[in-house]
Amino acid sequence: MRCASVGLVGFFGFVFFVVGCGSGTSSGDQAMIEQGNALHRGLAPAMVSEETRLRGYMQQISGRLLGAAKEVAKEKSIGRTGESADWMFSREMQFYIAASGIPNAFASGGHQVYVLLGAMQKCSSEDELAAAMAHAYAHTLLGHVRQNVGAIGADAPAGAIVVRFVEHRFNRKQEEEADDLAFTIYARAGWDPVAFVSMLEHLEAEKGRVAAIQSRLERLPPAAQEWSRPPIADARRFEEHRSGAAAIVAQKRPPQAVERLLAAFPNCFLPEDLPVQREAQRELMMPASTETPNTFEKGQRR
Q1: Which of 67, 133, 174, 258 could disulfide-link to 170, CB 3.0 to 4.6 Å?
Q2: Is residue 170 part of a domain?
Q3: Is 13 a domain residue?
C-alpha cells in the first residue's frame, strides 16, 4: 500500500508535514524509531539527564510540550489520519541533556530529542531551555529527519548514522520551518513567547531567524494571553538544575568517541558549525571516505 503525504497549513501559518498510512505506527516510522534507538545506544554514556532529579524535570517540561503539540495538531486538523503519528505525542518521546560543550540540540528522528549541555548553559531560564527542546522536537514532527537522513538500518553503528546527518544536514528553510512550528507549540504550552526570541539570540542563530520569530511574536492571537503558565522551576531551581548538570559532566566525562559523535552533529542554531564540530565531522568521515575529507570544511547551510 502506498503511503500518502499530508501537508496542511494551520491557523498559525506553519506547514506540518508527516508521512504515514493506515493505523498503528507506519513501517517508515518504525524504521526511524529503530534507527533512533540504535543511535541512542551509542550516545547513552553521555546522557547527563539520567540523574534522577534532572530526569524528572526534563519529563515535566517535555510533558507540557507534547500535550501542546497534540492539541495544535488536533485543533488545526493537521497531521495524518489514523493513529500512525500518535507515538510523536506520547510518553515514548524522551528528552535528554547530553554531555557536550557544543551549543546545540537535535532529534534522532525516533523517540529521542537531545539538548547538549553547551546549549543548556547558554539558556538563561527554563523558558529558553523549553524553546530549544521544542525546536529539536519540531524536526521530528515535520519529518525532516526521515526526509533528509532516512533509515539505514536498526543495526547501523551510531557513527554511520551521524555521518548521514552530516551528509544530509537540514537546510535553512527546514530550520525556519522548525522554528515556526516550535514557536507555536511552545507558546501554546504556556512559556513566555518572548523567551523563544532570546533563546535564538543566546544560541547565536542567524539574524533572519530571530527576526522571523520576532514577527510571529507580534502577531500572536489575543487568546495567547490565556495560554500563559508559570515555569515548572523558578530561577533558583533552574540554576540548580543547570549547575548540577555541569557538575555531573565535570566529575565523569563520556568516552572520547561519544564526545566526537555529539560534536559532529550539524549545528541547529549557529549559521556555521564551530571548528571543533568540523574537526569531529572530518574524523568521523575519514574512514568512510578518504577521498573527500574536507567536504564539510565550511559547514554552511545549503
Answers
A1: 174
A2: yes
A3: no
